[in-house]
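Tutorial handout. Part one gives the primary structure; part two gives the three-dimensional structure as tokens.
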Amino acid sequence: MHGAGRLVPSEAEATVTKQQQPEPMPNKPLNVGLVGGGRGAFIVHPHQKAIHFDGTRRVVAGALFPDPKIALEEAANWPYPIKGYGSYDEMIAANATLPEDEKLDYILIVTPNHVHYDPAMKAMKAGIAVFCEKPLCLNLKEANDLVRTARKLGVPFGVAHTYLGHWTSRLSRYIVRSGLLGDIRWVDSYYIQGWLATKLEATGQQQAAWRTNPKLAGGSGCGGDIGTHALMQLRYVTGLEVTHVSAQLETFVEGRLLDDHFTIYCKLNNGGKALVRASQICIGHKNDLGITIAGTKGTLEWRQEDPERLTIYLANQPDRVYWRGAVTPGDGFLPKDMPADLMAEPTIPPGHPEAFHDAFARLHRCFEADVRAWKAGKKVIIDGSKYASVEDGWMGIAFIETCVKSSKKKGAWTAMP
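Part two.
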């Protein structure tokens, strides 16, 4: 475990409860409000498609842009009818006076990083559950506040680490955590892109402009944007934690204010080692996230650009390729008693690919189940097994801040908080 200052709780502490409310109508879709998403935003669109995936959730409202006039215009031009608000303050305040069947059940925050903290805090204080894009916020002070508030108020809080929603990520987690690969010696978790190989932000391109601005993105550009995904994949699949880092945050594009290349050598809490790496200057690479996990009995490989399968390498045996929806328990590697909930998760037969939108939908589906249970007054344990928790978000921010410190000391080994 890390030092005494560590904030992340044990699983038993990561619970949410709520006073008993009137039992919600079982067939009523959950109402979702958007914070951000207007004027050329990208990530809101896979999210809103995923929200509507099952017919049990719907986007009903939005504060879509910082400028109130533009926010209302964007809402009026949304692909389907939603209630537009000039600000998230207005949307959250209005929720208190709405009829029960019109109240927001959760908000989705899809703004640049510097506008994660404030709406999340205000929503939680208003009794509204929060699903927030990663990284959680700008810095560890904000992250500490969010974790404390979520615990104190008992409000469900999820962080949108998309790739945990792939069924093969969940199968990978089961394989590794069941000990089928033996003790884990080495992990290589990476996310490689090429879209920032030139100074795209200088052209006014919206997505590049805020991601390379320290005031909007935080202390790391590439690391905060996609390095946190690589870290989360490592933690989610293996259950291991990073204890120390030796970091190199580099900027290859002249004049860029934040790193565009992120290379972190890590010590793990089981004595193993890992490499968490990300780059946005590798021409030809698109969204090349993947992980290799080497244990004493075998190795697992998975890539999100080929998300329907994972590969297992065992000594002196043929390679084993497992496809989503076509896994046979008791095959000589996998046990006969595979978890029923895991085996039931694939939504369509193998050969009909699940992909990016399905991963988002699986996250929202799991978050919906916890929000419904919470609103019914039931005790809910948010342990990070179905989607990233606010504590997972805290760990991402702690990792980034520690990497920045290490890199400033020329890669000196630096302990996680």
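Part three, for discussion. Residues 356-375 form the longest helix (20 residues). The first strand starts at residue 15 and ends at 16.
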